Amino acid sequence: MANITLKGQPVHTVGELPLVGTTVRDFELVNENLEVKRLSDYKGKKVIYNIFPSIDTGICAASARAFNEKAGALENTVVVNVSKDLPFALGRFCAAEGLDHVETLSDFRSNFADDYGVRITDGPMEGLLSRAVVVTDENAQVIYTEQVGEIAQEPNYQAALDAATSAS
């Protein structure tokens, strides 16, 4: 269980992020067209998982925009935004913002939050996802993680991008 905060107040997650060097677990997340996306859809690509509570909050929206801006320049890399938001809300946000270098997927009916250790177990955001970043190489092995200690803060974009860039 990760000990994090929301505006200084302690909250916890169901577990820990996947360990560096391990292979991430398969998942079934849903895109804005209600299509199921799985780990196998990203075979042979580096993936930056930008995990957050809700696209309808300022910091989550900022992280989606920031990764979209930087993702276009990365070779053989996909940025996947993951939240509990409904696929329709995620699609609406991406269309309105012109986000075309990221995929935004919903965990509204899967075990992703528990399998990746990011489900918040208490506090006002109980049941939502914590703010975290997981980067995997072309073989789905974890090469970088960040569990953001304060939900109201942005992740370390540069560290995640550097990990994806340096992975071979």
UniProtKB/TrEMBL annotation:
The Thioredoxin domain sits at 18-166
Q: Where is the active site?
A: C60
Reaction(s) catalysed by this chain, per the record, are: a hydroperoxide + [thioredoxin]-dithiol = an alcohol + [thioredoxin]-disulfide + H2O
Which cysteines are disulphide-bonded? C60-C94
Q: Which GO terms describe its molecular function?
A: thioredoxin peroxidase activity
Q: What is the enzyme's main class?
A: oxidoreductase
For this UniProt record, the keywords arranged alphabetically read as follows: Antioxidant, Disulfide bond, Oxidoreductase, Peroxidase, Redox-active center
- Write down the EC number: 1.11.1.24
**InterPro entries (alphabetical):** Redoxin, Thioredoxin-like_sf, Thioredoxin_domain, TPX, Tpx_CS, Tpx_Peroxidase_subfamily
Q: Give the family per the record.
A: Belongs to the peroxiredoxin family. Tpx subfamily.
Give additional notes from the record.
The active site is a conserved redox-active cysteine residue, the peroxidatic cysteine (C(P)), which makes the nucleophilic attack on the peroxide substrate. The peroxide oxidizes the C(P)-SH to cysteine sulfenic acid (C(P)-SOH), which then reacts with another cysteine residue, the resolving cysteine (C(R)), to form a disulfide bridge. The disulfide is subsequently reduced by an appropriate electron donor to complete the catalytic cycle. In this atypical 2-Cys peroxiredoxin, C(R) is present in the same subunit to form an intramolecular disulfide.
Q: What is this protein called?
A: Thiol peroxidase
